[in-house]
């Protein structure tokens, strides 16, 4: 475990606090707009090792700002890209549009509110694209993105902070990384079960 502890310290040592915060923000943007990137794990690691100069509360607030800001930026960029280049020009392939609309019809919450459920069970990928293609309200959708992100990552940071106070850093690292991996696995399982239920409910 000591080697992992030293490796994580070295990983962020060359970035410095500002660099670690910027890297975290970019990772959240990538996760929201391009490809899943395990931002929960990055948030934990940066909290424990990336910005040690800050007081724990200030550290948590800075990381929460980067996480929510990255979610906002990533979803907005994807929304604007899809709307400007595809939707407004009528270039969305009809099969894709029908598939997206059809999938939403089989979900329990077939509108923007699904964004909140997505925090627990990610059943809708590339949310920004869905906002654009299905003509959801951008303001309402992005509000759900921000509220959901703030709630999820606040709880995660509280958990990390508690473990950091209750255990030595090495033990806290092991426990929090394990907890995050379990939460991610549970989220993936929840999404699978939700999708399976939606397919079962699909009328023949």
Straight-line N-to-C gap? 54 Å
Please report the number of helical segments: 9
The proportion of strand residues reads: under 5%
Classify the secondary structure makeup into a structural class: mainly alpha
**CA gyration radius, whole angstroms:** 19 Å
Q: What is the overall silhouette?
A: elongated
Low-confidence stretches: none
Helicity range of the residues? over 70%
User: Order of helices and strands, N to C?
Assistant: HHHHHHHHH
- Overall mean pLDDT score? 86
Structural commentary:
This protein is mainly α and 204 residues long. The chain has one domain. It is built from nine helices and no strands. The chain has helices at 2-13, 16-33, 39-50, 56-87, 94-105, 114-117, 127-133, 138-166, 169-201. Helix 3 (39-50) crosses helix 8 (138-166). It is elongated. The N and C termini lie far apart (54 Å).
Structural features:
9 helices; 0% strand
In short:
This protein has helices at 2-13, 16-33, 39-50, 56-87, 94-105, 114-117, 127-133, 138-166, 169-201. It has 204 residues and is mostly helical.
Blueprint (SSEs and pairs):
Elements: H1 2-13, H2 16-33, H3 39-50, H4 56-87, H5 94-105, H6 114-117, H7 127-133, H8 138-166, H9 169-201
């Amino acid at each position: 475990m000591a080697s992992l502890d030293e490796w994580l310290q070295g990983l962020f040592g060359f970035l410095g606090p500002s660099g670690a915060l910027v890297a975290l923000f970019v990772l959240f943007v990538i996760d929201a707009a391009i490809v899943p990137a395990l931002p929960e794990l990055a948030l934990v690691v940066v909290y424990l090792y990336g910005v040690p100069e800050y007081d724990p509360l200030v550290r948590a607030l800075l990381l929460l700002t980067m996480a929510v800001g990255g979610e906002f930026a990533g979803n907005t960029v994807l929304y604007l890209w899809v709307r400007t280049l595809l939707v407004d020009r009528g270039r969305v392939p009809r099969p894709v549009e029908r598939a997206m609309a059809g999938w939403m019809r089989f979900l329990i919450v077939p509108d923007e509110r699904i964004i909140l459920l997505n925090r627990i069970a990610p059943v809708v990928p590339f949310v920004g694209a869905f906002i654009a293609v299905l003509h959801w309200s951008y303001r309402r959708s992005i509000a759900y993105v921000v509220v959901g992100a703030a709630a999820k990552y606040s709880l995660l940071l509280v958990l990390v902070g508690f473990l950091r106070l209750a255990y030595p850093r090495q033990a806290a690292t092991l426990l929090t990384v394990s907890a995050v991996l379990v939460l991610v696995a549970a989220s993936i399982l929840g999404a699978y079960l939700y999708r399976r239920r939606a397919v079962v409910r699909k009328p023949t």
